[in-house]
Amino acid sequence: MGRWAGALAFALAGWACDGGSAAATADVAVAADGVAGTDAAAAADTEAGGQRADAVGAEAASVPGDAVADLAADPDGGALDQVEPADADPPKPYPAELKLGLTPWTMAPKEETTRCILKRLDNEVDVWVHQIHTKLAKGSHHLIVYRSDATIEQPEPKKCTPFTETLAGGNVPLMISQVAQETLSLPKGVAFKFAAKQMIRIEAHYLNYYKDPIETGADISFSTLPKDKVVHEADMLFYGTPDFSLKPGKSTTTPWNFIDVWAGTHVFATTGHTHQYGTDVQIALAQGGTQTDAPLVYPPKDKPFDWAEAPMAVYDPPLQFKAGQGFQYRCSWYNPTTKNIGFGESANQEMCFFWAYYYPSKGYRMCINPGQWKKQAPDLITDPVCCPDSPLCGLIKSYLSSGGFGGGG
After folding, report:
1. Which of 101, 143, 357, 362 has the fewest CB atoms inside 10 Å of its own CB, making it the most exposed?
2. What predicted TM-score, i.e. pTM, was given to this entire model?
3. Residues near 89 by Cβ (< 8 Å), separated by ≥ 6?
4. Are residues 99 and 178 in the same domain?
Protein backbone atom coordinates (compact mmCIF):
# COMPACT_ATOMS: atom_id res chain seq x y z
CA MET A 1 0.00 0.00 0.00
CA GLY A 2 2.87 2.38 0.81
CA ARG A 3 4.56 1.81 -2.51
CA TRP A 4 1.30 2.30 -4.41
CA ALA A 5 0.23 5.34 -2.43
CA GLY A 6 3.59 7.00 -3.03
CA ALA A 7 3.59 6.17 -6.72
CA LEU A 8 0.00 7.34 -7.18
CA ALA A 9 0.60 10.54 -5.24
CA PHE A 10 3.62 11.24 -7.43
CA ALA A 11 1.59 10.58 -10.57
CA LEU A 12 -1.25 12.82 -9.44
CA ALA A 13 1.12 15.60 -8.41
CA GLY A 14 2.73 15.57 -11.82
CA TRP A 15 -0.66 15.57 -13.45
CA ALA A 16 -1.84 18.53 -11.39
CA CYS A 17 1.29 20.52 -12.29
CA ASP A 18 0.70 19.87 -15.95
CA GLY A 19 -2.89 21.00 -15.70
CA GLY A 20 -4.36 17.55 -16.18
CA SER A 21 -4.58 15.30 -19.17
CA ALA A 22 -7.16 15.85 -21.83
CA ALA A 23 -7.90 13.98 -24.99
CA ALA A 24 -7.59 16.24 -27.99
CA THR A 25 -10.37 15.33 -30.36
CA ALA A 26 -11.78 16.95 -33.44
CA ASP A 27 -14.83 16.35 -35.57
CA VAL A 28 -13.98 15.53 -39.14
CA ALA A 29 -15.85 17.47 -41.76
CA VAL A 30 -15.45 16.52 -45.41
CA ALA A 31 -16.23 19.42 -47.71
CA ALA A 32 -15.48 20.48 -51.25
CA ASP A 33 -12.81 23.14 -51.60
CA GLY A 34 -14.35 26.57 -52.20
CA VAL A 35 -12.89 29.59 -53.95
CA ALA A 36 -13.27 32.90 -52.16
CA GLY A 37 -13.58 35.79 -54.61
CA THR A 38 -12.95 39.48 -53.94
CA ASP A 39 -14.80 42.31 -55.71
CA ALA A 40 -12.49 44.57 -57.72
CA ALA A 41 -13.39 48.22 -58.40
CA ALA A 42 -11.58 50.22 -61.09
CA ALA A 43 -11.64 54.03 -60.74
CA ALA A 44 -11.22 56.07 -63.95
CA ASP A 45 -11.58 59.63 -65.13
CA THR A 46 -14.78 59.29 -67.19
CA GLU A 47 -14.20 62.22 -69.49
CA ALA A 48 -10.56 61.44 -70.23
CA GLY A 49 -11.46 57.81 -70.60
CA GLY A 50 -14.14 58.65 -73.17
CA GLN A 51 -11.78 60.81 -75.21
CA ARG A 52 -9.12 58.13 -75.20
CA ALA A 53 -11.65 55.51 -76.25
CA ASP A 54 -12.76 57.71 -79.20
CA ALA A 55 -9.18 58.15 -80.33
CA VAL A 56 -8.51 54.45 -80.14
CA GLY A 57 -11.67 53.69 -82.09
CA ALA A 58 -10.79 56.15 -84.88
CA GLU A 59 -7.24 54.90 -85.21
CA ALA A 60 -8.34 51.30 -85.14
CA ALA A 61 -10.35 51.81 -88.34
CA SER A 62 -7.13 52.33 -90.30
CA VAL A 63 -4.86 49.64 -88.83
CA PRO A 64 -4.68 45.89 -89.27
CA GLY A 65 -6.71 43.63 -86.99
CA ASP A 66 -3.66 42.46 -85.01
CA ALA A 67 -2.80 46.01 -84.14
CA VAL A 68 -6.34 46.63 -82.93
CA ALA A 69 -5.80 44.05 -80.22
CA ASP A 70 -2.59 45.79 -79.17
CA LEU A 71 -4.27 49.19 -79.09
CA ALA A 72 -7.16 47.89 -77.09
CA ALA A 73 -4.72 46.42 -74.58
CA ASP A 74 -2.63 49.59 -74.44
CA PRO A 75 -4.64 52.69 -75.38
CA ASP A 76 -1.53 54.85 -75.35
CA GLY A 77 -0.32 53.00 -78.40
CA GLY A 78 2.59 51.26 -76.72
CA ALA A 79 3.17 47.54 -77.13
CA LEU A 80 2.53 45.55 -73.98
CA ASP A 81 5.03 42.92 -72.93
CA GLN A 82 3.62 39.44 -73.36
CA VAL A 83 3.64 37.93 -69.85
CA GLU A 84 3.51 34.16 -69.83
CA PRO A 85 1.47 32.77 -66.94
CA ALA A 86 3.59 30.91 -64.39
CA ASP A 87 3.40 27.16 -64.68
CA ALA A 88 1.18 25.88 -61.88
CA ASP A 89 2.40 22.87 -59.95
CA PRO A 90 0.57 19.79 -61.12
CA PRO A 91 -1.80 18.38 -58.52
CA LYS A 92 -0.18 15.76 -56.33
CA PRO A 93 -1.52 12.28 -56.96
CA TYR A 94 -4.01 10.71 -54.57
CA PRO A 95 -2.79 7.11 -54.19
CA ALA A 96 -5.18 4.19 -54.41
CA GLU A 97 -2.90 2.00 -52.28
CA LEU A 98 0.06 2.37 -49.92
CA LYS A 99 2.40 -0.47 -48.89
CA LEU A 100 4.82 -1.17 -46.08
CA GLY A 101 6.95 -4.18 -45.19
CA LEU A 102 8.72 -5.55 -42.14
CA THR A 103 12.24 -6.73 -43.06
CA PRO A 104 12.49 -10.50 -42.44
CA TRP A 105 14.86 -11.99 -39.86
CA THR A 106 15.73 -15.54 -38.82
CA MET A 107 14.53 -17.05 -35.54
CA ALA A 108 15.87 -20.17 -33.85
CA PRO A 109 13.51 -22.84 -32.47
CA LYS A 110 11.74 -21.75 -29.22
CA GLU A 111 12.97 -18.17 -29.68
CA GLU A 112 10.47 -15.41 -28.85
CA THR A 113 10.76 -11.73 -29.67
CA THR A 114 8.81 -8.58 -30.44
CA ARG A 115 10.30 -6.19 -32.98
CA CYS A 116 9.17 -2.79 -34.22
CA ILE A 117 9.84 -0.40 -37.06
CA LEU A 118 8.91 3.23 -37.77
CA LYS A 119 8.62 4.15 -41.45
CA ARG A 120 7.06 6.90 -43.53
CA LEU A 121 4.56 6.16 -46.23
CA ASP A 122 5.09 7.80 -49.62
CA ASN A 123 1.75 9.64 -49.87
CA GLU A 124 2.32 13.27 -50.91
CA VAL A 125 -1.13 14.39 -49.71
CA ASP A 126 -3.51 13.59 -46.87
CA VAL A 127 -5.38 10.37 -47.59
CA TRP A 128 -8.28 8.39 -46.14
CA VAL A 129 -7.65 4.67 -45.59
CA HIS A 130 -10.70 2.47 -46.03
CA GLN A 131 -9.08 -0.97 -45.82
CA ILE A 132 -5.97 -2.50 -44.19
CA HIS A 133 -4.58 -5.88 -45.25
CA THR A 134 -1.90 -7.74 -43.31
CA LYS A 135 0.13 -10.80 -44.28
CA LEU A 136 2.25 -12.39 -41.54
CA ALA A 137 5.05 -14.94 -41.77
CA LYS A 138 4.85 -18.23 -39.85
CA GLY A 139 5.42 -18.01 -36.11
CA SER A 140 3.55 -14.74 -35.66
CA HIS A 141 1.49 -14.22 -32.50
CA HIS A 142 0.22 -10.74 -33.28
CA LEU A 143 0.98 -7.67 -35.35
CA ILE A 144 -0.12 -4.13 -34.49
CA VAL A 145 -0.29 -1.31 -37.04
CA TYR A 146 -0.06 2.16 -35.47
CA ARG A 147 -0.43 5.66 -36.85
CA SER A 148 2.45 7.51 -35.19
CA ASP A 149 3.43 11.14 -34.63
CA ALA A 150 7.13 10.22 -34.40
CA THR A 151 9.48 12.28 -36.57
CA ILE A 152 12.48 9.96 -36.93
CA GLU A 153 12.30 6.72 -38.89
CA GLN A 154 13.54 3.39 -37.57
CA PRO A 155 13.47 1.23 -40.71
CA GLU A 156 15.29 -1.80 -39.30
CA PRO A 157 13.34 -4.04 -36.86
CA LYS A 158 14.45 -3.51 -33.26
CA LYS A 159 13.33 -5.28 -30.10
CA CYS A 160 10.43 -3.60 -28.32
CA THR A 161 7.80 -4.34 -25.64
CA PRO A 162 4.51 -5.71 -27.00
CA PHE A 163 1.25 -3.80 -26.47
CA THR A 164 2.91 -1.07 -24.39
CA GLU A 165 2.55 1.51 -27.16
CA THR A 166 -1.22 0.96 -27.23
CA LEU A 167 -1.15 3.07 -24.05
CA ALA A 168 0.86 5.91 -25.56
CA GLY A 169 -0.96 8.89 -27.02
CA GLY A 170 1.59 9.41 -29.78
CA ASN A 171 0.97 5.97 -31.27
CA VAL A 172 -2.64 5.18 -32.13
CA PRO A 173 -3.39 1.54 -33.06
CA LEU A 174 -5.31 1.11 -36.29
CA MET A 175 -5.39 -2.68 -36.58
CA ILE A 176 -4.29 -5.62 -34.45
CA SER A 177 -4.00 -8.85 -36.44
CA GLN A 178 -3.54 -12.35 -35.05
CA VAL A 179 -3.94 -14.49 -38.18
CA ALA A 180 -1.72 -15.25 -41.16
CA GLN A 181 -3.73 -13.04 -43.52
CA GLU A 182 -6.44 -10.61 -42.47
CA THR A 183 -8.32 -7.71 -44.01
CA LEU A 184 -10.02 -4.96 -42.03
CA SER A 185 -12.66 -3.38 -44.29
CA LEU A 186 -14.39 -0.32 -42.90
CA PRO A 187 -18.10 0.40 -43.56
CA LYS A 188 -19.15 2.52 -46.52
CA GLY A 189 -18.01 6.12 -46.11
CA VAL A 190 -15.79 5.34 -43.09
CA ALA A 191 -12.00 5.66 -43.09
CA PHE A 192 -8.87 6.37 -41.05
CA LYS A 193 -7.17 9.69 -41.82
CA PHE A 194 -3.47 9.67 -42.77
CA ALA A 195 -1.45 12.87 -43.02
CA ALA A 196 0.92 13.40 -45.94
CA LYS A 197 4.04 11.23 -45.48
CA GLN A 198 2.29 9.51 -42.58
CA MET A 199 4.60 7.77 -40.11
CA ILE A 200 3.56 4.19 -39.36
CA ARG A 201 4.76 1.99 -36.49
CA ILE A 202 4.65 -1.78 -36.99
CA GLU A 203 4.93 -4.07 -33.95
CA ALA A 204 5.34 -7.81 -34.57
CA HIS A 205 5.36 -10.43 -31.81
CA TYR A 206 6.86 -13.75 -32.98
CA LEU A 207 7.41 -17.14 -31.34
CA ASN A 208 9.16 -19.96 -33.20
CA TYR A 209 7.30 -23.04 -32.03
CA TYR A 210 8.72 -25.09 -34.95
CA LYS A 211 11.63 -27.53 -34.70
CA ASP A 212 13.65 -25.66 -37.36
CA PRO A 213 14.68 -21.99 -37.77
CA ILE A 214 12.08 -19.80 -39.51
CA GLU A 215 12.10 -16.59 -41.55
CA THR A 216 9.78 -13.97 -40.11
CA GLY A 217 8.38 -10.76 -41.54
CA ALA A 218 5.14 -9.03 -42.51
CA ASP A 219 3.56 -7.06 -45.33
CA ILE A 220 0.90 -4.38 -44.86
CA SER A 221 -1.14 -2.58 -47.50
CA PHE A 222 -3.55 0.34 -47.11
CA SER A 223 -6.37 0.91 -49.63
CA THR A 224 -7.67 4.46 -49.78
CA LEU A 225 -11.05 6.10 -50.28
CA PRO A 226 -11.46 9.35 -52.26
CA LYS A 227 -11.89 12.19 -49.80
CA ASP A 228 -15.22 13.23 -51.28
CA LYS A 229 -16.59 9.78 -50.40
CA VAL A 230 -15.66 9.99 -46.68
CA VAL A 231 -18.49 10.58 -44.20
CA HIS A 232 -16.94 9.50 -40.86
CA GLU A 233 -13.46 9.07 -39.41
CA ALA A 234 -12.80 5.71 -37.68
CA ASP A 235 -10.87 4.92 -34.51
CA MET A 236 -10.28 2.15 -31.93
CA LEU A 237 -11.37 1.20 -28.40
CA PHE A 238 -8.99 -1.06 -26.44
CA TYR A 239 -10.37 -2.69 -23.26
CA GLY A 240 -9.15 -5.33 -20.80
CA THR A 241 -8.02 -6.37 -17.34
CA PRO A 242 -4.68 -7.51 -15.89
CA ASP A 243 -6.34 -8.77 -12.68
CA PHE A 244 -6.18 -12.57 -12.77
CA SER A 245 -4.10 -15.47 -11.41
CA LEU A 246 -4.09 -18.87 -13.09
CA LYS A 247 -3.49 -21.71 -10.64
CA PRO A 248 -1.50 -24.79 -11.76
CA GLY A 249 -3.60 -27.49 -13.38
CA LYS A 250 -6.79 -25.40 -13.08
CA SER A 251 -9.31 -23.71 -15.36
CA THR A 252 -9.93 -20.05 -14.56
CA THR A 253 -12.52 -17.52 -15.76
CA THR A 254 -12.51 -13.86 -14.76
CA PRO A 255 -15.67 -12.21 -13.42
CA TRP A 256 -17.63 -10.19 -15.96
CA ASN A 257 -16.16 -6.68 -16.33
CA PHE A 258 -18.12 -3.69 -17.65
CA ILE A 259 -16.80 -0.70 -19.59
CA ASP A 260 -19.07 1.95 -21.06
CA VAL A 261 -19.00 3.13 -24.67
CA TRP A 262 -19.56 6.75 -25.69
CA ALA A 263 -23.15 7.56 -26.65
CA GLY A 264 -23.56 7.79 -30.41
CA THR A 265 -20.76 5.30 -31.10
CA HIS A 266 -21.10 2.76 -33.93
CA VAL A 267 -18.92 -0.35 -33.45
CA PHE A 268 -18.39 -2.35 -36.63
CA ALA A 269 -15.89 -5.04 -35.51
CA THR A 270 -14.33 -6.60 -32.38
CA THR A 271 -11.52 -9.08 -31.62
CA GLY A 272 -10.53 -10.83 -28.37
CA HIS A 273 -6.96 -11.58 -27.26
CA THR A 274 -5.24 -14.04 -24.93
CA HIS A 275 -2.01 -16.03 -25.06
CA GLN A 276 -1.55 -19.79 -25.46
CA TYR A 277 -3.47 -20.85 -22.32
CA GLY A 278 -6.60 -18.90 -23.32
CA THR A 279 -9.72 -20.96 -24.03
CA ASP A 280 -12.30 -18.22 -24.56
CA VAL A 281 -13.02 -14.50 -24.70
CA GLN A 282 -16.68 -13.51 -24.41
CA ILE A 283 -18.09 -10.04 -25.09
CA ALA A 284 -21.69 -9.01 -24.51
CA LEU A 285 -23.81 -5.85 -24.68
CA ALA A 286 -24.84 -4.40 -21.33
CA GLN A 287 -26.56 -1.40 -19.74
CA GLY A 288 -24.96 0.40 -16.80
CA GLY A 289 -23.05 -2.64 -15.54
CA THR A 290 -22.80 -6.42 -15.85
CA GLN A 291 -25.97 -8.43 -16.44
CA THR A 292 -26.70 -12.17 -16.34
CA ASP A 293 -28.75 -12.12 -19.54
CA ALA A 294 -26.58 -9.78 -21.64
CA PRO A 295 -26.60 -10.80 -25.33
CA LEU A 296 -23.25 -12.14 -26.56
CA VAL A 297 -21.67 -10.47 -29.59
CA TYR A 298 -18.28 -12.25 -29.46
CA PRO A 299 -16.94 -14.72 -30.45
CA PRO A 300 -18.77 -15.01 -33.77
CA LYS A 301 -21.35 -17.79 -33.82
CA ASP A 302 -19.60 -19.54 -36.72
CA LYS A 303 -16.04 -19.10 -35.39
CA PRO A 304 -15.25 -20.28 -31.84
CA PHE A 305 -12.44 -18.45 -30.07
CA ASP A 306 -8.95 -19.73 -30.89
CA TRP A 307 -6.07 -17.95 -29.17
CA ALA A 308 -3.67 -18.69 -32.07
CA GLU A 309 -6.00 -17.20 -34.70
CA ALA A 310 -8.52 -15.16 -32.76
CA PRO A 311 -11.48 -14.42 -35.04
CA MET A 312 -12.78 -10.95 -35.84
CA ALA A 313 -16.52 -10.38 -35.42
CA VAL A 314 -17.93 -7.95 -38.00
CA TYR A 315 -21.28 -6.22 -37.38
CA ASP A 316 -23.46 -5.17 -40.29
CA PRO A 317 -25.28 -3.04 -39.32
CA PRO A 318 -22.86 -1.74 -36.67
CA LEU A 319 -23.61 -1.98 -32.96
CA GLN A 320 -25.02 1.35 -31.73
CA PHE A 321 -24.70 2.68 -28.19
CA LYS A 322 -26.77 5.07 -26.11
CA ALA A 323 -25.84 6.75 -22.81
CA GLY A 324 -24.95 4.22 -20.12
CA GLN A 325 -24.54 1.32 -22.52
CA GLY A 326 -21.31 -0.57 -23.09
CA PHE A 327 -19.57 -3.93 -23.23
CA GLN A 328 -19.17 -6.60 -20.58
CA TYR A 329 -16.44 -9.18 -21.14
CA ARG A 330 -14.60 -12.07 -19.51
CA CYS A 331 -11.68 -14.36 -20.35
CA SER A 332 -11.06 -18.07 -19.65
CA TRP A 333 -7.87 -20.15 -19.51
CA TYR A 334 -6.54 -23.58 -18.64
CA ASN A 335 -3.12 -23.65 -16.98
CA PRO A 336 -1.41 -27.02 -17.65
CA THR A 337 1.84 -25.99 -15.95
CA THR A 338 3.06 -26.41 -12.38
CA LYS A 339 3.35 -22.65 -11.77
CA ASN A 340 0.99 -19.74 -11.16
CA ILE A 341 0.56 -17.62 -14.28
CA GLY A 342 -0.29 -13.93 -14.23
CA PHE A 343 -0.41 -10.99 -16.62
CA GLY A 344 2.54 -10.38 -18.93
CA GLU A 345 3.73 -9.82 -22.50
CA SER A 346 5.50 -13.17 -22.88
CA ALA A 347 3.74 -16.08 -24.57
CA ASN A 348 4.31 -17.96 -21.28
CA GLN A 349 2.26 -15.34 -19.42
CA GLU A 350 -1.30 -14.28 -20.16
CA MET A 351 -3.53 -11.39 -21.21
CA CYS A 352 -7.23 -10.57 -21.30
CA PHE A 353 -7.98 -7.85 -23.85
CA PHE A 354 -10.34 -7.03 -26.67
CA TRP A 355 -10.49 -4.17 -29.13
CA ALA A 356 -13.31 -2.60 -31.10
CA TYR A 357 -13.29 -0.54 -34.29
CA TYR A 358 -15.76 2.35 -34.26
CA TYR A 359 -16.97 5.63 -35.76
CA PRO A 360 -17.40 8.61 -35.63
CA SER A 361 -14.00 9.17 -34.07
CA LYS A 362 -13.66 10.75 -30.65
CA GLY A 363 -10.06 9.60 -30.49
CA TYR A 364 -8.34 6.41 -29.39
CA ARG A 365 -9.57 5.15 -25.99
CA MET A 366 -7.89 2.54 -23.78
CA CYS A 367 -9.69 1.36 -20.61
CA ILE A 368 -8.52 -1.06 -17.90
CA ASN A 369 -10.66 -2.72 -15.23
CA PRO A 370 -8.30 -2.79 -12.21
CA GLY A 371 -10.22 -5.47 -10.26
CA GLN A 372 -8.52 -6.29 -6.94
CA TRP A 373 -5.82 -3.72 -7.70
CA LYS A 374 -8.35 -0.98 -6.88
CA LYS A 375 -8.27 -1.99 -3.20
CA GLN A 376 -4.67 -0.80 -2.94
CA ALA A 377 -5.77 2.83 -3.33
CA PRO A 378 -9.59 2.96 -3.42
CA ASP A 379 -9.73 6.76 -3.11
CA LEU A 380 -7.54 7.27 -6.17
CA ILE A 381 -8.23 4.39 -8.53
CA THR A 382 -11.44 4.37 -10.54
CA ASP A 383 -13.03 1.39 -12.25
CA PRO A 384 -12.42 1.51 -15.10
CA VAL A 385 -9.33 3.65 -15.62
CA CYS A 386 -9.58 5.16 -19.11
CA CYS A 387 -6.77 6.84 -21.01
CA PRO A 388 -5.79 9.40 -22.05
CA ASP A 389 -8.22 11.08 -19.60
CA SER A 390 -7.05 9.60 -16.29
CA PRO A 391 -4.08 11.00 -14.33
CA LEU A 392 -3.14 7.37 -13.62
CA CYS A 393 -2.40 6.56 -17.28
CA GLY A 394 1.36 6.94 -16.90
CA LEU A 395 1.36 4.64 -13.88
CA ILE A 396 -0.71 2.03 -15.69
CA LYS A 397 1.67 2.06 -18.64
CA SER A 398 4.63 1.51 -16.31
CA TYR A 399 3.04 -1.43 -14.51
CA LEU A 400 1.63 -3.11 -17.62
CA SER A 401 5.00 -2.91 -19.38
CA SER A 402 6.78 -4.43 -16.37
CA GLY A 403 4.20 -7.18 -15.83
CA GLY A 404 3.41 -5.73 -12.41
CA PHE A 405 -0.12 -7.14 -12.18
CA GLY A 406 -1.64 -10.56 -11.66
CA GLY A 407 -0.53 -13.59 -9.73
CA GLY A 408 2.32 -15.01 -11.78
CA GLY A 409 5.39 -16.40 -10.10
Report:
1. 101
2. 0.72
3. none
4. yes
